[in-house]
Write a structure and sequence with these properties.
Layout lengths: L1 H28 L6 H4 L9 H14 L1 H4 L23 H4 L3 H10 L13 H16 L4
Helix pairs in contact: 3-7, 6-7
The structure holds heme C (HEC).
């Protein structure tokens, strides 16, 4: 009876390991979706020269090493990440609402760091305004 219990426990542990491994593998390529509540959040910061310049400064300090100068996902640290660094100029990113992009930049997702602790909401919206200009510089 005791032996049976041990076998059962190790079998359960085995199953759990497989499930965890599979979900981690799946997570790698899982699409990153902002929640619906983020989608409709309105950008309160007008996209003008001042806010774009402020966003560019933040980008060059905190994002460029991964996302690259033009946002193509080819910064100097990009190759060292286990997850492909997103191309911010792509229509996949640019088709999202300001609210969705704001949420992602704010929350981060490993290996991308969260930015909400060391940036104000205003700074994050300025970064969104700058990211929009990266989308525009790409020839379709
Ligand atoms: C350590 C590298 C790294 C840094 C630094 C970084 N990112 Fe990222 N970023 C990533 C990776 C990797 C992904 C893809 C994450 C995923 O799909 O799970 C990503 C995804 C994103 C996305 C979502 C793209 C999509 O597919 O919807 C946005 C927007 C973004 N980053 C903006 C920024 C901004 C703005 C900054 C700076 C404030 C920044 N990132 C800093 C690595 C980084």
């Amino acid at each position: 009876m005791k032996k049976f219990k041990i076998r059962k426990a190790s079998m359960l542990a085995g199953i759990a390991t497989v499930v965890i491994a599979l979900s981690l593998a799946f997570q790698q390529n899982k699409e990153w979706k902002a929640p619906d509540s983020a989608k409709d959040k309105k950008n309160p910061i007008t996209s003008d020269d001042a806010s774009i310049a402020a966003g560019k400064k933040i980008y060059e300090k905190d994002c460029i090493n991964c996302h690259g100068k033009k946002g193509k996902g080819d910064g100097k640290d990009a190759a060292n990440q286990d997850v492909t660094v997103a191309d911010l100029t792509s229509s996949k990113v640019q088709s999202q609402t300001d609210g969705e992009i704001f949420w992602k930049v704010s929350e981060g997702r490993k290996p991308m760091p969260s930015n909400k602790k060391d940036h104000s909401d205003e700074q994050l919206w300025q970064t969104v305004n700058y990211l929009r200009t990266l989308g525009k510089s790409v020839k379709k």
